[in-house]
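ok so for the tutorial part 2 we go from a plain amino acid sequence to predicted structure tokens. step 1 is just haveing the sequence, like this:
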Amino acid sequence: MSNLGVAPLPALLGKFFFWMTKPFHFLKDNPVLYRGRHFNIVFFGVFAALEAMSILLAFVFYLGLRGAVLAPVAVPEFLLLVVFVWIGARLFHLFALGKKFLAQPRKYLLQTGFYVQGGLVGLLVWCFQAAPVLQISIFTLMDGLLWAGALGQFWGRLGCFNYGCCFGKPTHQDCGVSYHNEESKVLRWRPDLKGKPLHPTQLYTAYANLFVFIVFLFLLPLNLPTGFISMSLLAAHGLLRIFIETLREDIYFHGKRNGSTLRFALASLVAAGLLGFVGHLVDPFFLESIPFRLSPSWSHLFVIVGSRLYLEIAILGAGLVAFLGYGIHGKTLGQFPVPVQLEN
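step 2 — the prediction. this is what the tokens look like for a chain of 344 residues:
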């Protein structure tokens, strides 16, 4: 068949993703916000703060639609949520290192490193802990947080793009972006990739999560059964991870793939299925269609938050905790700020 001048599908997709991701290209190559004598602050902390605050704003919006009233106890609970997510993300990173961590535990304990799947587990554990405290059903909390988490991941993945982690494989398509700042994590790990176009997998994931958030925003008026959002988003997370990992380069070490990331993605799919079987055991309202107390309108969010100073404090406080937890590095990028004797 003769060539009619129609670009092949990969080329068209490359051009499409180039124009989709181009607005954020300015974020790369400037990972450091502040350079100090004893510590550094990375821009990733700013994105982590935006992620935490956007999650809590959307979460409060969802709970308001459900008619849930957040008492002042929400302040420590929201701060605890950030801690649960941080600990989960940290532990999963160490677990994924496997034998490397066991061989050199001190080295890897000092290194910054987080896995979003672990943060997801921390979020789910928090729901079980917070349900009796906030007097809100487990799956109401879980539905709201997982939906809000999709919005938060938009900001979080922009932070990954800025910091240079979770980077993609080399590509010749128009969508490729290259890193030149040697302080970017991609070049600290793989100096050979300097200037080479890579798939901006962080931006692909950011857009995918934003799309999921918007889709379910329009589905909210349908009064989806309690727990349906949780199962759907856990499954969507697993499927997205499996697809994105076909384009990621950072999961390879010396040419060998780290299988933990795929297992975590599959575990998300399994968890979505298990909820369908055990949901009734942990929440009597599981899969019940409970009408919203309010119609979905963002004006309600401003009323709810604006009329409760403690919610504003909780959201800003959570942002500050996230900034400190993810943004402060030691004298060396990629390490926690610890006393010199511990580094040595």
